[in-house]
Design goal:
single chain; alpha+beta; four-stranded antiparallel β-sheet
Length: 174
């Protein structure tokens, strides 16, 4: 019998609202620019590209705004990352957990998880530029990061929740 998660993390509502607002603004500006270019007879190829990019950003922001399910769940059975794996990652599969130090974007605002190679191979990690918060950590084998600046919880709170259960045998590998 699986137990319910003790700690859940969602995307922050303020962040999704900000992204939707920016998406609306960018879409309106790029469409207005394209209309202007068509009226004055200028080249419109680049304008169409920017309209497509702005509408994609708006669509992505809207989908994130509508999706309020947890992105990270921590409980006695392990770490669950619903967008990355349907299965709960048992604590025994984690080799190292570290909280990023420093400013967000410069090493801080994230929690790094190193897992065994078999587990890592089965994870469907996202891309940061697509708005995903669980991404492959560059330059470190079998490591992924939970990027936290746009989440409801900060990196230190997520790290503290993980430390309640990991390492499972009480041996401090961190």
């Amino acid at each position: 019998m699986t137990q319910q998660p003790v700690f859940s993390v969602r995307r922050a509502l303020w962040a999704t609202l900000l992204n939707v607002t920016l998406g609306l603004l960018l879409s309106a500006l790029t469409i207005a620019n394209l209309v202007h270019q068509l009226r004055v007879g200028q080249s419109w190829g680049v304008g169409v590209l920017f309209v497509i990019l702005a509408l994609f950003f708006l669509w992505q922001a809207w989908m994130q705004f509508r999706e309020r399910t947890p992105l990270v769940e921590i409980g006695p059975n392990g770490l669950h990352l619903p967008g990355v794996s349907a299965e709960i990652l048992p604590w025994s599969r984690l080799r190292q957990v570290t909280a990023g130090r420093g400013l967000p974007g410069l090493g801080g605002g994230r929690v790094d998880f190193t897992v065994d190679p078999e587990t890592f191979a089965h994870l469907k990690l996202g891309q940061r530029f697509m708005g995903d918060v669980v991404v492959k950590s560059r330059g470190r084998p079998n490591t992924f990061s939970v990027v936290t600046p746009q989440l409801e919880e900060r990196a230190d709170a997520i790290y503290a929740a993980v430390k309640r259960y990991w390492p499972p045998d009480g041996d401090e590998e961190d």
